[in-house]
Amino acid sequence: MAKSKKKIHYAWWTLVALCIIVGVGKGALNNSAGLFIPEATSDLGISTGNLTIYFSIASIVTMIFLPIGGKILAKYDTRVVLIAAMILQAGAFVAFGFSNSVWGWYIFSIPLAVGGVFNTVIAGPVIVNQWFKKKNGMALGLIGASQGLLGALAQPLVGRTIADAGWRTGYISLGIAAIIIVVPTILFLIRKSPQAVGIMPYGAEEEAAVGAEPVDTEADKGITFTIARKSAAFYSLFLFFLLIVSIASFAIHIPSYIVSLPAGYDSIFAGNAMAGYLIGVLLGALVLGFLVDKIGSRNTIYLAMVLAIVSVFGLLFGTNSSLLIILSTTLFGFTVSNSVGTLAPALTSSLFGSREYSQIYSTASLGLAIAGIVALPAYGYIFDITKSYNIALYILIIMLVLNIVLVTYAFVGKKKLINEGHWK
């Protein structure tokens, strides 16, 4: 008699839930933020630079709350924490819709960031680590792709809502819709742990069956944090993180840039362009991850930086072509956004190995936080002063070229560390 089909492991249902949570939290909510800036600043008479300071406040809160959030998620019921987080994050969008001064964005950026710490930063890696002992890399890749997919679906809808009903209705509708979609998903699909439903994590059964003792392989080797933090390779990595996030931060300003062009594009077109951006994020999460495995992180980063330069030139000089604007925006999402989520972690591993990866990566990640605090309002003030984003776009090109130099120098530094016998 044939064996009955094996049931789908609950880890996959958990992954579906995470794709929805992160896709809505990051793709639909966070990535739609830029669509509201032109209308809100115009209506309330707020400068773009002053309004976008709220992104810096959110970045500071995120940096402070990250270690606290990790402890909360470990201690309390996962469903309760994630539901509260979505209410905070999406509720902040609803509150923005009722704001009449820039202080509304400054105040409500705090719950926005606190909720976002769980929904967009911690939940994916922590819960995948609980549920997957095998194929966890693929699981994280699918979560990254979901951000692009759900964001691409949301952007045109948000742009249309802003154009037809106003930015206030856009904020309120998006916030309420996020809560309606995500809260039931959490209630029905998320569980505290595999043990809570009486099963082992996906792949753990195979590991237990093999029963082999762990061996000291190359995967366990690398450079210690103490040595790494004093090296040229580490400082190059830190600066790469800082620059790539500074570049990626411009995505928030893309809708404002498009609407400011003499060609007369409106918020509906800006929403369609941002949908293209998020399709690029989706495709890039899959393609660049594949290329890292095939040609290595260094060569993949070189390719991504060159393509990103092409995308910025397209934004600068293709302003009269709606097709070229959308293609350039899509290519920007394909390369730059995934350089933060896919290439930066891979670069860290290539340079320093796995021995003390978490310490090295988390310390270098301070560059990510610093960039988020500074870059977002800086682009806004450039526009306020010059009435154009062109200077900002030329700065992006310079930073992309510098990243190629930094990655090259980082691998020179790695070679020196290996020659000195620090790779163990």
TrEMBL record:
Membrane topology classification: Multi-pass membrane protein
Signal peptide positions on this chain: none
Membrane-spanning parts: 51-68, 80-99, 105-127, 139-158, 170-190, 232-254, 274-292, 299-317, 360-379, 391-412
Residues in Major facilitator superfamily (MFS) profile domain copies: 11-416
Keyword set includes Transport: yes
Keywords noted in UniProt: Membrane, Transmembrane, Transmembrane helix, Transport
Cellular localisation: Cell membrane
Protein name: MFS transporter
Species the sequence originates in: Sporosarcina aquimarina
